Amino acid sequence: MRCTKCKGTASIELRRHHSAFCKPHYLEFFDRQVERAIRRHKMFAPDDHILVGVSGGKDSLTLWDYLLRNEYNCTGLHIHLGIGDYSDNSFDRTASFAREREASLITVDLAESYGMGVPELSNALRRVPCSGCGLSKRYILNKEAFDRGFDVVAMGHNLDDEAATLMGNVLHWEVGSLARQQPALPSNRDTLIKRVKPLYTMTEREVAANAILRGIDYVEEECPNSVGARSIVYKNALDDIEAKSPGTKHGFVSTFLDRIRPVMETSQEDFDLRECTICGQATTGEVCAFCRMWQQARAKKEKSSKTHG
Ligand code: SF4
Ligand SMILES: [Zn+2]
Ligand SMILES: [Zn+2]
Q1: Ligand 1 geometric centre to CA of 122 (Å)
Q2: Which domain holds residue 189?
Q3: Are 146 and 193 in contact (CB under 8 A)?
């Protein structure tokens, strides 16, 4: 297999692009695609202060690495979720990445700041771990960005993530979520910080190849709670289709963004947002979903400790 650019030995074949690249040309291609996504969606300006959500996995470390190499003004935010060894390893990789590059890192420990880690939260709520975890991650990323005066929040979601989310939203006709599914979600209120996904055009395999070729030391193990998650079912289904028809994932997401979502914009409900009476973040009700969830979890934990104590 030969590199499409220099005819040297190729390290990676990209069937959806009908091309193959050697290491330097692949890294050049990868950066160009990310840069194109950032420009096309006006994700951020060179002097914007960016808060990057960093889990320690290949996607978020690849994104942080890209932003640092391109001298963006960025800081990482890692949330320690309290999921056993997985969380400890994730934190270790994130911290050593930051140390090696002298990058600034903020860490929020869920149990220390809010009283429970993900497993305890899930037990108290009697809900699957991902539901409380996902809501907490989104909320904390936005809240920290707001409190600390960042202009934009950047997340490492890749094309596979976006295609799986889109598939889930379409299968369940989640109209509100579809309208919000954008690579750059603008801020529509002071407390809601703009949210961007610069890697959304790159597949999981392409991001992993970039991370490996750049020598990024990321956590390879998956979160133990991801086994059986619905998003994995969708990802596997999309992988099967992609194998038979390369380019399907990209076509699915880009056609939605170019043709379907703009039509939805006009039918998007104009929610009457106000401030959460507990934390001040934007909400449609009195108390935001995050504060409601934690109130419930703490009350149930207290009740069960009284019953068992
Ligand atoms: S798989 Fe679920 S519990 Fe694990 S990090 Fe992701 S959202 Fe959280
Ligand atoms: Zn080459
Ligand atoms: Zn709140």
Answers
A1: 11
A2: 45-273
A3: yes
Q: Which residues line ligand 1 (CB under 6 A)?
A: 81, 118, 129-130, 133-134, 223, 225-226, 229
Q: Which ligand is nearest to the CA of 5?
A: 2
What does the pLDDT look like over 38-57, one tens digit per residue?
A: 999 999 999 999 999 999 99
| Residue 69 in tokens | 């190499």
pLDDT tens profile 196-229: 999 999 999 999 999 999 999 999 999 999 987 8
Q: How far is the CA of 21 from the centre of ligand 2 (A)?
A: 5
Q: b or e along 199-233 (b: 16 or more beta carbons within 10 Å of the residue's beta carbon)?
A: bbbbbbebbbbbbebeebebbeeebebeeebeeee
Tell me, yes or no, whether 281 lies in a domain: no
Q: What CATH number is associated with residue 104?
A: 3.40.50.620
